[in-house]
Design goal:
The chain has a domain of about 100 residues. It contains 22 helices and 4 strands. The strands form 2 sheets. The protein has a two-stranded parallel sheet. The longest helix is centred in the N-terminal third of the chain and has 36 residues.
């Protein structure tokens, strides 16, 4: 009833405004109404993702459709006005965002079907269960925490292979047809928006016509470091699993500590360059730390930069650990409920290194929300979606400086070269490994959406790209019905892969700038090393970041980055140099270690 009333009021207001107002004044009431709808839609989505029931899904879909209808009508009505005489550039951008539609350009039934498909795929992904390898009648193993623990633990090769196969049986075949329908609908929406297909539509924020060539170049620039890391890990895995891994070929996916091999953090501890226990994350458990306590550590870091503390709603309503009495989605996410006071995180964490990293990262998203709250509703967003993850990623890097880990009691002993290499190695198993993994997803999805690859070749093309860019292969033969990409959350949830790839590089640019602002890193000082930078209590770094985040979407992202980044030509474009600088000591160590062990670098296709 409330939604219907809002729509009626909106239409009546437009009739009046068309008679009386010929300027942007009409946006004032429009913003209020849109904000209320977005708030209601976000509440319904939260209720569904924290309790995956049919009832909650129906409520969510209802709010999705109502919000889409409102935005579609707003776009149509605003298009009747000639705004070119308006001199306010920010107002022009705000109006442009109202005029620009996304998937809501579809007819209501098709839009609802698209949202339903995406919700169903996420539901299958989040609720799938498999049977235990050792106890076949125990068939309640979920992705989190059960399957994740198997891959990150000391499991046998047989158990890893079994779990890898069974999880894929429980997800891939069930989402394949849904994904095919999803492709048809997002392409239809893209075409209605004036694009050839959705692969072009998802690049709309990138004004650079050569962006695809540049991202390919960036992946190549980082490949040498990845190949050294790949060779070292393969060598270590051969010691552990014997001939299960080739000396010169690709690595079987089930041995890499992660169900999807998107990051290899799960095997970092068993392949460490120096196995001495420098880190002390076990101390969190010994001191009875909770996930909330780790979140307090993260908040303290942000507050030390004179950034905002987390609001009361964050502590009261966030979900930090998997709920035991309901099915829920566990992939980390930050939530702005568009009421100026309700901000939350949703994730399923443990008191370990990953929990520490995740909370520092995602609290960066909340900081972003808080800094642009004073803007109109259509401007409350990052200049580009990649900036959210980039800011969060920069803070996770800062939180892992050995100086800071020692400060909070998570590192013991003296800071040494060996400790540096271990720390860089563990971070590389997430950050560096994610680059070719994300690029493979990007290439695959681009080919699917453009129609270059047909549905009958989805899975074969997937493994061709994973082998080419990651040097990873399936442990058993795969077939089209297996649809292994369906096990990648970013694929079935419709997230922007361009955003993810961009943020992997941009976070190091932002981190370097924060370090330069605090004079913790100096470009022309050969003794200055980026990975040793510690920006804790740097009010200057915090002020620079606050200014960037406060822009929201008022300015294009090139403009925002140009005013934030200050070195050379690294203004409004991506540059992998800071990422390479950060990991340079590890690269040199890996190169020497692989030479010493006579390890083949690369992989035979």
């Amino acid at each position: 009833m409330l939604v219907s009333s809002i729509l009626v009021i909106f239409l009546l207001n437009f009739v009046q405004c068309k008679k009386l107002l010929l300027t942007g004044d009409v946006l004032t009431s429009l913003n209020v109404q849109l904000q209320e709808l977005m708030h209601l839609q976000k509440l319904a989505t939260w209720d569904y993702e924290t309790n995956l029931t049919d009832f909650n899904l129906a409520k969510k879909l209802e709010m999705d459709v109502n919000l889409a209808s409102f935005q579609k009508q707003a776009s149509y009505n605003l298009s009747k006005y000639k705004w070119k005489s308006e001199r306010d550039g920010v107002l022009q951008r705000e109006r442009l965002f109202y005029l620009r539609l996304e998937e809501e350009i579809l007819p209501p039934k098709k839009y609802k079907r698209l949202k339903e498909i995406m919700s169903k795929m996420i539901h299958i992904y989040s609720t799938a269960k498999i049977c235990d390898y050792s106890y076949p009648t125990k068939c309640d193993l979920a992705l989190l925490p059960d399957i994740e623990n198997i891959f990150a633990g000391n499991s046998s090769e047989d158990e890893l292979r079994y779990t890898w196969i069974e999880r894929r049986k429980a997800v891939g075949p069930k989402v394949r047809d849904l994904f095919q329908e999803y492709v048809q609908l997002v392409n239809e929406a893209a075409q209605k928006n004036g694009y050839d297909d959705a692969s072009e539509y998802y690049l709309r924020e990138h004004t650079d016509p050569d962006i695809k060539k540049k991202l390919k170049h960036y992946n190549r620039r980082l490949r040498s470091l990845y190949e050294q890391l790949h060779a070292y890990v393969r060598f270590k895995l051969r010691k552990k699993y014997g001939n299960s891994t080739s000396e010169i070929g690709s690595i079987p996916a089930h041995l890499l500590g992660d169900l999807t091999a998107q990051k290899w953090s799960g095997i970092a501890q068993v392949t460490l360059p120096y196995p001495e226990p420098y880190e002390n994350f076990d101390n969190l458990k010994q001191q009875n730390y909770t996930v909330t306590d780790i979140a307090r550590l993260a908040e303290d870091f942000y507050k030390s930069l004179n950034l905002s503390k987390m609001p009361n709603s964050f502590w009261r309503k966030s979900v930090f650990q998997k709920l035991t009495d309901t099915n829920m989605t566990c992939n980390p996410s930050a939530w702005d409920f568009y009421d100026g006071q309700n901000f939350r995180l949703k994730t399923c964490l443990k008191t370990d290194r990953e929990g520490y990293e995740t909370l520092h990262h995602w609290m960066g998203h909340i900081q972003y929300f808080l800094q642009y709250q004073g803007l109109d509703i259509k401007l409350r967003n990052a200049a580009t979606d990649a900036l959210f993850d980039s800011v969060g990623g920069a803070f996770s890097l800062a939180a892992f400086s050995l100086k800071h880990l020692k400060r909070v009691g998570l590192y013991r002993g003296e800071i040494s070269t060996k400790a540096d290499i271990n720390n860089l190695y563990t971070l590389a198993m997430s950050k560096i490994v994610s680059v070719p993994a994300t690029y493979a997803i990007l290439k695959w999805k681009d080919k699917i959406l453009s129609g270059e690859v047909k549905s009958e070749d989805y899975n074969s093309e997937w493994w061709k790209l994973v082998l080419k860019y990651q040097g990873v292969q399936p442990p058993v033969p795969r077939f089209e019905d297996d649809f292994d990409p369906g096990n990648i959350f970013e694929i079935i949830s419709g997230e922007s892969i361009w955003k993810k790839f961009t943020s992997l590089i941009l976070q190091f640019q932002i981190f370097r700038q924060l370090c330069e602002t605090d004079r913790e890193f100096q470009i022309f000082d050969k003794a200055s090393q980026l990975h040793t930078c510690d920006i804790y209590q740097s009010v200057k770094a915090g002020a620079a970041l606050r200014t960037m985040m406060a822009y929201g979407k008022k300015k294009p992202w090139g403009y925002v980055m140009k005013h934030f980044l200050s070195y050379g030509r690294l203004f409004d474009e991506l540059n992998p140099v800071p990422m390479l600088e950060y990991f340079q000591p590890l690269y040199e160590w890996l190169e020497k270690e692989n030479q010493k062990n006579g390890v083949f670098v690369g992989w035979i296709l």
